[in-house]
Amino acid sequence: MIVGVDIGGANLKFAAVDPKSNNEACHSCFFPMWTDANRLADVLVAELSSFGKIDAFAITMTGEMADCFIDRHLGVQQIAEACRLAATKAGVDRFGFYRSDGRFTRLTESKKETDSVASANWHASATWLASKFSVDHGILVDIGSTTTDLIPINNREVSTPSKTDHDRLCEGALAYVGCGRTPVCSLVSSLLIDGKWCPVMNEVFATIDDALVVLEMTSPDAEDLQSADGQPRTVPFAANRIARMVGLDRSSVSVDVAKQLSEQIVDAAKARIKQSFHAVDQGGTIILGGHGDALFDPPSGRGIIRLTDRFSEPASRCLPALAVAHLFQNNRYALL
């Protein structure tokens, strides 16, 4: 059994692949790196134990950007060390860290060459998918809870000179818009309500997830309290959070009005993603994935591979973890 893990700043994503049967099992869990970094090794051990006997462990990460780390270099080192501890406790001898050049590296090298390991999960996803679906020319659009990756593909390989998140932000290949954590005030400066434009409050009273819940574009969850105010992710509470963005609340903003506000918020997110798409798009097949794929409307006349049609919802959500698991297997566990 090979387990891939994508260690993010807010979520941990796991994918187990059985090389013999090619069966896959994927799941994710909320993990606030910015407060719980010291618990990472213990959480990894607990999650890995759910997969039974593990032969190899493949790792990619973005969590080094969490502000609990003074810089990315130390973030990679601390996360890598947590992975070593987890592998030791789980009895896994073979483990490697994915690099932005498509290879895997050992613990010691990952701690030295941190720039090559930091935030490389996008490269793993695009590399694996381009090969799996034989995409000679196209682009991967992967919309997660926090960001959108837009990765050009040529000759079945990643086709961008960017190596870091900074490079990709400047190029347009990384849009800081997702379907979960994106604050409403980062998407719109004002909203039309009662026939007049009202500037929004520059507070994280609501996120795009609230707009999606109100519009029934995502499933509500009364048990999920990971919202801006710590209240449930249900339509009434989400509508109340949206109302706060214009200085109001549920006493004066109905769910119907909240829907009108939410439509404007979602439209703004779609426009931001579309702008980044056009900045890097080189034509060809569009691979569309991530649990926020509803935020992208593909241009007409293009071939589309929708990952929700090819994978289960958990697998689509855990795409980078699934990618590194398969790539590590395909590379026969080769390490630099």
UniProtKB/TrEMBL annotation:
Molecular function (Gene Ontology), one example: hydrolase activity
One Pfam family, short name: Hydantoinase_A
All residue ranges annotated as the Hydantoinase A/oxoprolinase domain in the record: 58-325
Domain of life the protein comes from: Bacteria
Protein name: Hydantoinase/oxoprolinase
Lineage: Bacteria, Pseudomonadati, Planctomycetota, Planctomycetia, Pirellulales
